[in-house]
Amino acid sequence: MAPVVVLMEPGDPSLQAITLARTFGDPVHAVHSAAVEPFAPDALAAILQRAADDLGAAAVFAAGTDRGNDVMARLSARTGLPLAANVTAATPGQPVRLTRQRWGGSLLEEAELHSARPLITVAPHVFPVANGEAPVEVDVQPYIAALDPKDLAVRVVEHVEPPGGGVSLAEAKVVVSGGRGVGSKEGFAILEDLAAVLGARVGCSRVVTSAGWRPHTDQVGQTGTKIAPELYIACGISGATQHMAGCKAAKRILAINSDPEAPIMSLADYTVVGDLKEIVPAITAELRAVRGTSPPNPPRLRGGAEA
Amino acid sequence: MKILVCVKRVPFTGGKMVLNVDSTALETRHLGFTISPHEECGVEEAVRIIEAGGGESVVLTLGPGEAVEQLRDAMALGIDRAILLQTDGAEWDGEATAAAIVEAIRADEAASGPFDLIFFGNESADAGGYQVGLRVAHALGRPCATGLKAVKVEGGSVRCEQDTGAGRDVYVLQLPAVVTVKEGLNLPRYPSVPGRMRAARKAVATVTPSRTESHLRLVKLAVPGGGGRRAESLGTGAAAAPAVVEMMRKAGIV
Fold first, then answer.
1. Which of A164, A285, B124, B130 has the highest count of CB atoms within 10 angstroms of its CB?
2. Which pLDDT score is estimated for B230?
3. Long-range contacts: A227-230, Cβ < 8 Å, 24+?
4. How does pLDDT run across A183-211, given as a tens digit for each residue?
5. Chain B residue nearest residue A88, CA to CA
6. Which uninterrupted H or E stretch holds B133?
7. B236 lies within 8 A of chain A by CB
8. What is the structure's pLDDT at A15?
């Protein structure tokens, strides 16, 4: 079997990419995204190109992350080889038969990839993390020494730290999210109260950010943040595919909606039908009552105008 | 400044994906269409840059004749003119799309000067190939940064901010450059009635590009199975609160 090359980033998605890569060749050779610091995607594409050529690689893989897709598209452009992004299944051959995600995973495409050297990014959280033998490290020093200066023109020149304060939407264990049914910017106050009692983050649907009720950083969905909390509480959210693409990895979904026929009511684990303006405060009050007078997570009020 | 924004016409999918009879495309007869969300923000950003500093903005799409609707939508927000690369409606892969766009850019630049900045969406909402902008940048020999949440022209360069999940990475590209952006870059305005009226009179140049061979060929589409969730009712109205809290307790959340 010919070898394969994998672009490795920190985190599980790259280890999942190795699982698919092993079905295409042996051994697996690794080029780390940290090989060029600060991050310089054209330089990484150049290194992958040289490594794949020198090894006679059967295929090149990366995780379907922002950086993985970015570097692989650059590799594809500079080599003239086609790229299949966010693949969920693939069988080697001529052509490669594969399945890939469309619409943020709401639709699957079966396709044929006709290529002398398939370039594939692997959709995160589909394959198990590879165990067993570690990949062979590619000696990148000669390739770095031979880099064309123009491949270093695009590089990270500064890093801005995130604003402090609380857990991020992507990492929150519980997310209390609101959609069109919340009705207004001010309507989110009752969701904020419930989130405070639960130590949760507030999220929202795309309709809400488009209306300017919440910042885009709160948006859960295909074009917002993809989350996988223990519990997702969807209040007044219809369950459009754009939204479900962002929350379908949640362990449990509780939908609160006045319309029992809303799509989300059949996509959730638990449902409550009715007016969220009554139900959400009732849940908050019930939680406070159950916890008695000394709540373990005293509510922290968010600063700002919604007094 | 001369700025180009490349956009894609995509359907509003609503709550359910429905395929055509041979499962090769979405059934779109009953669906409306829009500019793919990331690119809506590209349009808004281009309009803002030209409003602030002067110049010309152009919108381009590759798609069926009906895609002129999306070009008019962009012009209603303030884009000056449009280029339609008209197809028969069949889907083009990333390679073929990029090749046609590169040819159109070269023709426009030969006629009316170079684009200082070219916007793409990071990935289209439908096909999600993650490559057209980078392919165009490579073919033109211009620097490209992707997935941007902030773009600021500063003299002869553009400062680009990319969300990493743990803060932002900053790139500074020399112009002319190509950027691919994500929703959240800005909050796009709604078109005004006068804007719509002006858009109806703006120029749309139509070109029929030739299609290069596809190496990634769609065989068929499939709607993935549901999450296997059970949709258990916990009740109706405020009276459901104790059942909700009991569910949370069993799940170890409270």
1. B130
2. 87
3. A227/A169, A227/A170, A227/A172, A227/A175, A227/A203, A228/A125, A229/A172, A229/A173, A229/A174, A229/A175, A230/A173, A230/A174, A230/B251, A230/B252, A230/B253
4. 999 999 999 999 999 999 999 999 999 99
5. B224
6. helix B132-140
7. yes
8. 97
